[in-house]
Amino acid sequence: MPPLRETVEGASSSTAYAPWYGSSGQGRYQWISGENKGTPIPAIKKFEMRRDGLAATSTGYAARTTDMEVVMAHADYATLTTTYANNYKNAQSTVVFTRKPVSLPNHGPNVGSPAPWSIAVQYDTPFAYNGTDSLLFEVSCQNTTPTGTYSLDCEPGLAPGGTGAYVDTAGQCTTPNGGFDIFLGSPSIALTPTTVTIRPYGTGGPSSQPGVLGLGLVDLNSNFGGVLCAKLRTSMDVLIPVNTTATGAIGSSSAPILLTFPNPGVNATLYGQFAVLDPSQTSPFVPVALSDAVRYTIVPNGVQLRTIWNDTSATAATGTLSFSGFSVVRFTY
Question: What is the Cα 248 distance to its own chain's centre?
Fold first, then answer.
């Protein structure tokens, strides 16, 4: 877990998020995934982890030994807490690997991406996953030696919401009012269960001219053979009419364009850009000025991967709940 990472490198890495990392020589980690739902697995018999495939070769990440215990359970991702026991659904969990010494390999050398599955732990007791609930995987370790950093391939979780970013801020047209800029607005994205709202505005456009805010699913990244004074960075699947002021503004930071549309229910990316009539753009250009562009990334349901960690105790009742450090794990069944 998460799915589709068996032959693909995880999107992040960690040298700290592991139960055998802390200076005390012990730790307790839960990893909970809501991304694996769909297929029951009657008997999970082994877990494997791997080094991050992109991290440079290092003299750190040394081989070590630890006394390890592994627990698995079902969970409800929507109700996770920092208390480990509360995350076992219906207060039920299975010790699949009773505490015993385990040797962990040297993860210092970079051996390619993705790296081989170098950590393998065969279970004493198989775990039956129902395919409906979130999947909980917990490792606790004691008497780890040596301690310290250790490279692992990881995948980040992500809270529901969205982010905005600028695309090619030097790629706008120049008008009599200066560089034609688009701004994300703050906050750039507001997400509710049913709607998404974005808040762009612009400055430096041509004076008192009609135009559009174009939103599209594709970054065309083309000036169409040089007829546009900047690259068109949106496929303009949706066009919203706008008008510039005498100073070339489209809205403002305090009064941006409020555009609300249905929540797509799936992860989506939108590219936005202003296009306004501009008589100052002469041959070889068509009389249109383009702003630079923005990219909105909408994540309605988040990426359901969470880590609860404690680097000081293998028996701690509570830990820190984080979207970071979710180790890529392969299960055999």
Answer: 36
- pLDDT tens digits, one per residue of 67-121: 999 999 999 998 999 999 999 999 999 999 999 999 999 999 999 999 999 999 9
Contact 134, 33 (CB under 8 A): yes
What are the backbone dihedrals phi and psi of residue 22, each rounded to the nearest 5 degrees, phi first? -60, 150
Please report, as a single letter, which amino acid is at residue 65.
T
CA atoms lying within 13 Å on the CB side of residue 149: 11
Per-position DSSP letters for 163-186, written without gaps between them: EEEEE-TT-PPEETTEE-EEE--S
DSSP at 313? -
CA torsion angle for 318, 322, 327, 331 (degrees, to 10)?
60
Contacts of 88 (CB under 8 A, 6+ apart): 73, 74, 75, 136
- What CA–CA distance (Å, rounded) separates 52 from 326? 12
Environment class of 282 (CB within 10 Å of its CB; exposed 0-12, middle 13-18, buried 19+): exposed
The backbone torsions φ and ψ at residue 294, rounded to the nearest 5 degrees and listed phi first, read: -125, 155
Q: What is the pLDDT of residue 13?
A: 87
The DSSP call for residue 84 is G
C-alpha to C-alpha distances, 328 to 52, 102, 119, 156, nearest whole angstrom: 9, 19, 11, 10
Contact 272, 213 (CB under 8 A): yes
For residue 185, pLDDT beyond 90: yes
Residue 225, C-beta contacts closer than 8 angstroms, at least 6 positions apart: none
CB atoms within 10 A of CB 61: 22
